Amino acid sequence: MDRANSGKIRDMRDQPNHVIENLASIRERIAQAAERAGRRADEVTLVAISKTVPAERIREAYNAGVREFGENRIQEWESKAPELGDLDVKWHLVGHLQRNKAARAIRLFHTIDSVDSLPLAEKLDHVAGELRKVPVLIEVRLDPSAKKAGCHPAELPRLAEGVLLLPHLELRGLMTVPPIATDPRDARPLFRRLREMRDEVAKLLDWPLPELSMGMSSDFDIAIEEGATQIRIGTALFGARPPE
Q1: Closest C-alpha to 66, from 39, 48, 40
Q2: pTM of the predicted model, to two decimals?
Q3: Which of 37, 49, 109, 110 is deepest in the core (most CB within 10 A)?
Q4: What is the pLDDT of residues 104-144, one digit of tens each?
Q5: What is residue 241's DSSP assignment?
Q6: Alpha-carbon gap, residue 60 to 64, rounded angstroms
Q7: pLDDT confidence of residue 17
Q8: Per-residue pLDDT tens for 209-239?
Q9: Hey, which CATH number is domain 3-236, 1.10.1200.10, 3.20.20.10, 3.40.50.300, 3.30.70.20?
Q10: Measuring CA to CA, how many Å separate 74 from each of 82, 119, 133?
Q11: Domain boundaries, the chain
Protein backbone atom coordinates (compact mmCIF):
# COMPACT_ATOMS: atom_id res chain seq x y z
CA MET A 1 0.00 0.00 0.00
CA ASP A 2 1.33 3.45 -0.83
CA ARG A 3 2.12 5.91 1.95
CA ALA A 4 -0.53 8.43 0.87
CA ASN A 5 -3.33 5.89 1.15
CA SER A 6 -2.10 4.20 4.32
CA GLY A 7 -2.76 7.32 6.37
CA LYS A 8 -6.42 7.19 5.39
CA ILE A 9 -6.94 3.72 6.83
CA ARG A 10 -7.53 3.56 10.58
CA ASP A 11 -7.91 0.68 12.97
CA MET A 12 -11.66 0.28 13.52
CA ARG A 13 -11.05 -0.81 17.10
CA ASP A 14 -9.18 2.33 18.08
CA GLN A 15 -10.79 4.93 15.80
CA PRO A 16 -14.56 4.27 15.86
CA ASN A 17 -15.84 7.68 14.78
CA HIS A 18 -14.15 8.46 11.47
CA VAL A 19 -16.54 6.91 8.94
CA ILE A 20 -17.89 10.28 7.80
CA GLU A 21 -14.39 11.71 7.36
CA ASN A 22 -13.16 8.60 5.56
CA LEU A 23 -16.17 8.56 3.25
CA ALA A 24 -15.55 12.16 2.23
CA SER A 25 -11.94 11.30 1.39
CA ILE A 26 -12.98 8.24 -0.61
CA ARG A 27 -15.52 10.22 -2.59
CA GLU A 28 -12.92 12.84 -3.38
CA ARG A 29 -10.56 10.15 -4.66
CA ILE A 30 -13.38 8.63 -6.74
CA ALA A 31 -14.06 12.02 -8.34
CA GLN A 32 -10.38 12.62 -9.07
CA ALA A 33 -9.86 9.16 -10.59
CA ALA A 34 -13.01 9.49 -12.70
CA GLU A 35 -11.87 12.88 -13.97
CA ARG A 36 -8.48 11.47 -14.96
CA ALA A 37 -10.28 8.77 -16.94
CA GLY A 38 -12.73 11.16 -18.58
CA ARG A 39 -15.62 9.64 -16.65
CA ARG A 40 -18.24 10.91 -14.23
CA ALA A 41 -17.99 10.09 -10.54
CA ASP A 42 -21.61 8.93 -10.52
CA GLU A 43 -20.64 6.10 -12.90
CA VAL A 44 -18.89 4.41 -9.97
CA THR A 45 -20.77 2.67 -7.15
CA LEU A 46 -19.13 2.37 -3.76
CA VAL A 47 -19.86 -1.01 -2.18
CA ALA A 48 -18.89 -0.80 1.49
CA ILE A 49 -17.40 -4.13 2.57
CA SER A 50 -18.63 -4.69 6.09
CA LYS A 51 -16.87 -7.96 6.90
CA THR A 52 -16.13 -7.98 10.69
CA VAL A 53 -17.75 -4.54 11.00
CA PRO A 54 -20.34 -4.34 13.79
CA ALA A 55 -23.90 -3.32 13.04
CA GLU A 56 -23.57 0.11 14.64
CA ARG A 57 -20.69 1.03 12.31
CA ILE A 58 -22.66 -0.14 9.29
CA ARG A 59 -25.53 2.08 10.41
CA GLU A 60 -23.09 4.97 10.77
CA ALA A 61 -22.00 4.50 7.15
CA TYR A 62 -25.64 4.33 6.08
CA ASN A 63 -26.38 7.58 7.90
CA ALA A 64 -23.40 9.12 6.08
CA GLY A 65 -24.97 8.20 2.72
CA VAL A 66 -23.68 4.71 1.79
CA ARG A 67 -26.41 2.66 0.14
CA GLU A 68 -24.66 -0.53 -0.99
CA PHE A 69 -22.85 -2.97 1.29
CA GLY A 70 -21.00 -6.23 0.74
CA GLU A 71 -20.48 -9.20 3.05
CA ASN A 72 -18.15 -12.15 2.60
CA ARG A 73 -19.81 -14.74 4.83
CA ILE A 74 -23.43 -15.76 5.08
CA GLN A 75 -23.20 -16.67 8.75
CA GLU A 76 -21.77 -13.30 9.73
CA TRP A 77 -24.45 -11.38 7.85
CA GLU A 78 -27.18 -13.53 9.41
CA SER A 79 -25.95 -12.48 12.85
CA LYS A 80 -26.11 -8.78 11.98
CA ALA A 81 -29.23 -8.73 9.82
CA PRO A 82 -31.77 -8.45 12.68
CA GLU A 83 -30.22 -5.14 13.74
CA LEU A 84 -30.13 -3.70 10.21
CA GLY A 85 -33.33 -4.90 8.58
CA ASP A 86 -34.77 -1.39 8.50
CA LEU A 87 -32.03 0.00 6.26
CA ASP A 88 -33.03 0.71 2.65
CA VAL A 89 -29.84 -0.60 1.04
CA LYS A 90 -28.61 -3.18 -1.46
CA TRP A 91 -26.68 -6.10 0.02
CA HIS A 92 -24.00 -7.83 -2.08
CA LEU A 93 -22.51 -11.25 -1.41
CA VAL A 94 -18.90 -10.84 -2.47
CA GLY A 95 -17.33 -13.93 -0.88
CA HIS A 96 -17.12 -17.49 -2.14
CA LEU A 97 -20.46 -19.26 -2.06
CA GLN A 98 -20.94 -22.98 -1.60
CA ARG A 99 -23.84 -24.58 -3.42
CA ASN A 100 -25.40 -25.91 -0.23
CA LYS A 101 -25.82 -22.32 0.99
CA ALA A 102 -27.42 -20.99 -2.19
CA ALA A 103 -30.93 -20.79 -0.74
CA ARG A 104 -29.74 -18.79 2.26
CA ALA A 105 -27.79 -16.45 -0.02
CA ILE A 106 -30.82 -15.76 -2.20
CA ARG A 107 -32.92 -14.89 0.85
CA LEU A 108 -30.29 -12.63 2.42
CA PHE A 109 -28.66 -10.77 -0.49
CA HIS A 110 -29.96 -8.67 -3.35
CA THR A 111 -27.09 -9.61 -5.68
CA ILE A 112 -24.54 -12.43 -5.82
CA ASP A 113 -21.22 -11.04 -7.04
CA SER A 114 -19.10 -14.20 -6.85
CA VAL A 115 -20.56 -16.81 -9.21
CA ASP A 116 -17.64 -18.96 -10.33
CA SER A 117 -19.12 -22.15 -11.80
CA LEU A 118 -22.11 -23.35 -13.78
CA PRO A 119 -23.25 -25.81 -11.08
CA LEU A 120 -23.40 -22.92 -8.59
CA ALA A 121 -25.28 -20.76 -11.10
CA GLU A 122 -27.76 -23.59 -11.77
CA LYS A 123 -28.37 -24.03 -8.05
CA LEU A 124 -28.96 -20.30 -7.59
CA ASP A 125 -31.34 -20.30 -10.56
CA HIS A 126 -33.31 -23.19 -9.13
CA VAL A 127 -33.72 -21.47 -5.75
CA ALA A 128 -34.36 -18.03 -7.24
CA GLY A 129 -37.11 -19.44 -9.44
CA GLU A 130 -39.31 -19.71 -6.39
CA LEU A 131 -38.66 -16.12 -5.32
CA ARG A 132 -37.30 -13.59 -7.82
CA LYS A 133 -34.83 -12.80 -10.63
CA VAL A 134 -31.37 -12.34 -9.13
CA PRO A 135 -28.58 -10.10 -10.50
CA VAL A 136 -25.21 -11.86 -10.54
CA LEU A 137 -21.59 -11.18 -11.43
CA ILE A 138 -19.11 -13.81 -12.57
CA GLU A 139 -15.92 -13.83 -10.53
CA VAL A 140 -12.83 -14.33 -12.70
CA ARG A 141 -9.57 -15.58 -11.20
CA LEU A 142 -6.79 -13.46 -12.69
CA ASP A 143 -4.15 -14.28 -10.05
CA PRO A 144 -2.49 -17.50 -11.31
CA SER A 145 -0.22 -17.77 -8.28
CA ALA A 146 -2.98 -18.17 -5.70
CA LYS A 147 -5.69 -20.74 -5.03
CA LYS A 148 -8.53 -18.27 -5.03
CA ALA A 149 -12.15 -18.53 -5.98
CA GLY A 150 -13.19 -17.53 -9.44
CA CYS A 151 -13.48 -19.16 -12.82
CA HIS A 152 -10.43 -19.60 -15.01
CA PRO A 153 -10.29 -16.96 -17.77
CA ALA A 154 -10.48 -19.64 -20.43
CA GLU A 155 -13.76 -20.88 -18.95
CA LEU A 156 -15.43 -17.46 -18.88
CA PRO A 157 -17.19 -17.48 -22.30
CA ARG A 158 -18.77 -20.86 -21.68
CA LEU A 159 -19.80 -19.98 -18.14
CA ALA A 160 -21.26 -16.63 -19.22
CA GLU A 161 -23.23 -18.33 -21.98
CA GLY A 162 -24.54 -20.88 -19.49
CA VAL A 163 -25.63 -18.22 -17.01
CA LEU A 164 -27.45 -16.29 -19.74
CA LEU A 165 -29.56 -19.37 -20.42
CA LEU A 166 -30.77 -19.53 -16.81
CA PRO A 167 -34.14 -17.73 -16.66
CA HIS A 168 -33.98 -16.59 -13.03
CA LEU A 169 -30.50 -15.05 -13.07
CA GLU A 170 -29.57 -11.70 -14.58
CA LEU A 171 -25.91 -11.62 -15.64
CA ARG A 172 -24.70 -8.06 -15.05
CA GLY A 173 -20.92 -8.29 -15.48
CA LEU A 174 -17.64 -9.47 -14.01
CA MET A 175 -15.73 -9.28 -10.73
CA THR A 176 -12.14 -9.99 -9.76
CA VAL A 177 -9.87 -9.87 -6.72
CA PRO A 178 -6.26 -8.96 -7.57
CA PRO A 179 -3.33 -10.38 -5.63
CA ILE A 180 -2.06 -8.44 -2.63
CA ALA A 181 0.76 -6.20 -3.81
CA THR A 182 3.11 -3.70 -2.21
CA ASP A 183 2.52 -1.30 -5.07
CA PRO A 184 -1.17 -0.82 -6.03
CA ARG A 185 -0.07 -0.02 -9.58
CA ASP A 186 0.73 -3.70 -10.05
CA ALA A 187 -3.01 -4.34 -10.27
CA ARG A 188 -3.49 -2.16 -13.34
CA PRO A 189 -2.80 -4.90 -15.95
CA LEU A 190 -5.30 -7.20 -14.23
CA PHE A 191 -7.99 -4.52 -14.12
CA ARG A 192 -7.37 -3.75 -17.78
CA ARG A 193 -7.55 -7.44 -18.63
CA LEU A 194 -10.90 -7.85 -16.87
CA ARG A 195 -12.30 -4.93 -18.83
CA GLU A 196 -11.04 -6.43 -22.07
CA MET A 197 -12.50 -9.82 -21.17
CA ARG A 198 -15.84 -8.20 -20.40
CA ASP A 199 -15.84 -6.46 -23.77
CA GLU A 200 -14.88 -9.66 -25.59
CA VAL A 201 -17.59 -11.75 -23.93
CA ALA A 202 -20.26 -9.07 -24.38
CA LYS A 203 -19.47 -8.94 -28.09
CA LEU A 204 -19.30 -12.72 -28.43
CA LEU A 205 -22.66 -13.26 -26.76
CA ASP A 206 -24.25 -10.04 -27.99
CA TRP A 207 -25.27 -9.21 -24.46
CA PRO A 208 -24.52 -6.02 -22.47
CA LEU A 209 -22.39 -6.56 -19.37
CA PRO A 210 -22.35 -3.11 -17.78
CA GLU A 211 -20.77 -3.93 -14.41
CA LEU A 212 -17.09 -4.32 -13.57
CA SER A 213 -16.52 -4.91 -9.85
CA MET A 214 -12.82 -4.38 -9.22
CA GLY A 215 -10.66 -2.28 -6.98
CA MET A 216 -10.43 -2.18 -3.20
CA SER A 217 -9.10 0.21 -0.56
CA SER A 218 -5.52 0.39 -1.79
CA ASP A 219 -6.08 0.39 -5.55
CA PHE A 220 -9.60 1.58 -6.35
CA ASP A 221 -8.28 4.77 -7.99
CA ILE A 222 -6.49 2.65 -10.59
CA ALA A 223 -9.51 0.38 -11.02
CA ILE A 224 -11.68 3.41 -11.81
CA GLU A 225 -9.14 4.59 -14.38
CA GLU A 226 -9.43 1.14 -15.99
CA GLY A 227 -13.22 1.11 -16.09
CA ALA A 228 -14.53 -0.11 -12.74
CA THR A 229 -18.22 0.56 -12.16
CA GLN A 230 -18.21 -0.91 -8.66
CA ILE A 231 -15.42 -0.59 -6.10
CA ARG A 232 -15.36 -2.66 -2.91
CA ILE A 233 -14.12 -0.56 0.01
CA GLY A 234 -13.61 -1.88 3.51
CA THR A 235 -10.58 -0.68 5.47
CA ALA A 236 -10.42 2.76 3.83
CA LEU A 237 -13.95 3.37 5.12
CA PHE A 238 -14.19 1.47 8.39
CA GLY A 239 -10.53 1.16 9.43
CA ALA A 240 -8.20 -1.81 9.61
CA ARG A 241 -9.87 -5.07 10.54
CA PRO A 242 -8.86 -6.90 13.72
CA PRO A 243 -6.66 -9.96 13.19
CA GLU A 244 -8.67 -13.08 12.40
Answers
A1: 48
A2: 0.90
A3: 49
A4: 999 999 999 999 999 999 999 999 987 889 999 999 999 87
A5: P
A6: 6
A7: 55
A8: 999 999 999 999 999 999 999 999 999 999 8
A9: 3.20.20.10
A10: 13, 19, 20
A11: 3-236
